[in-house]
Specification:
Oligomer: single chain
Shape: globular
GO biological process, one term: protein N-linked glycosylation
GO molecular function, one term: alpha-(1->6)-fucosyltransferase activity
Amino acid sequence: MTAAGWATDSGNQYEIVEDSELPDFPTPVIVTDKRGRSKWTISIPPDHEFPLTLNQYANICSQSMEIAATVSDLHSHVHREHSAHYDYYHVDQNFMDVAEAEAHGLLPGIKTKNSVLNEKDGSLVGENKGDLIDLAVCDKTLTVVLETSDAGLGKTLMMLWTAFGLANKEGRHFFIDDSRWAYGKYTTFFKPPPTPDCRPPPQHEMLPCPHHARHLIVSAATITHTFGGSFNDHFEDAKKMEVFTVKNQYLKWPDSDIELFSDYPATTMNMLTGGPQNSRRKLHLTLRIKRAELSLGYIAHMILDQKYNHSLPNGGHDVLAQMASAIVIASDDPDVYDSEEFKEVSRAQEKIRLASKNALEAVAPKPNTPGPRKFVDDTVGWEGGFYAGMFWSLGKPSGTPKTGVETPDTTLPITAEALRLRELVGRAYLMDLAVLGKASDKIVCTVSSTGCRLLAVMMGWKKAIEEGGFVNVDGNFEWRGVAW
């Protein structure tokens, strides 16, 4: 190797710095061989912490665009305006994958096999836990990093499902890194993905971009690169209208990964309706609502009326079938369940409930002695719905949750108590989804909510879209799974 160059951040621009040694931090680099031919690759020191931080992944992708343009100019000997929007499967002929760069002596690589085994053994979900030394490295992989600064679970879940479908389409083996996930271990909530008969690549070979890299990393920080404009342009059908433009994307979402708590939805619906779901005359309606959407109850009753009005052979109203039908609701606002409109409606699940301030105060011990009292923090519940500040404050020793004005530190180590509470919140959300998505004939919801888009995916394209099982109160405008 005669020269190496890399990009440094200087405001909003990047400048190329030349050196004869590789940097000791992750960055795209220009490498020049002894014949003076330039290529670019991504240098991640083999001993660097894995996974990289979200900022590092984002910076690598941003800097890669500048590096790629520079190398292209070097080959053409002139500066040209470069397209900012290539086809999703565009292959940059000037890019050299990490393993290839190592084979040419342009990157150092890992010296021994034991180093690879020590860094990888058991660290990824989906990894074969057997004798890794006898397994070859997978040809192509896609690894999802679950770390995110978003307190909600919905966006991460949608990204995960979409990435799994993409990996299947592209013939990539699929792995998950949950080492810094705010909700703990992936297998606490889900079954692991299929285990391949090969091992993951060395960590420094997993790259966030370009997309044609042999071993791809997908994270919340690089979602615009993986599922951005090029992704939509490639997979959407411009000849169709509204949600039908995204049918190709929709069909790639995996059925196997959506089987959440597979025996729980059917059991719950049996309890709600008094028996197995074998009656054609019953209709199971699902509502997923917030306080501001209480009108959804009106819509649900209207659907039942339309379903059974004039449905008997003599044209009469099937009152018995309508009475046997069930309306099930789920909400992140516990006060919704106590509202007058939904007092007689069944909850999606009763195992885990988020408590409101009123409910907590009702069961709190009352002081029965006069005189001075010890100060007690004000009770705070989940009334109003799920808020990030409330989530990040779980498990803290004292004090009320941070307000929305103050940005919480999402990188602090998770205490055992905080993790226990976060797992409860996550399980409550997922059990709601499991029941609503798999045990409903119709879902009344709003696609502006990620949770509602997840429910549409769980119902399946035919039932949700073609048969009208998903009733979107926001209208029939276009919507996508992954938001960016």
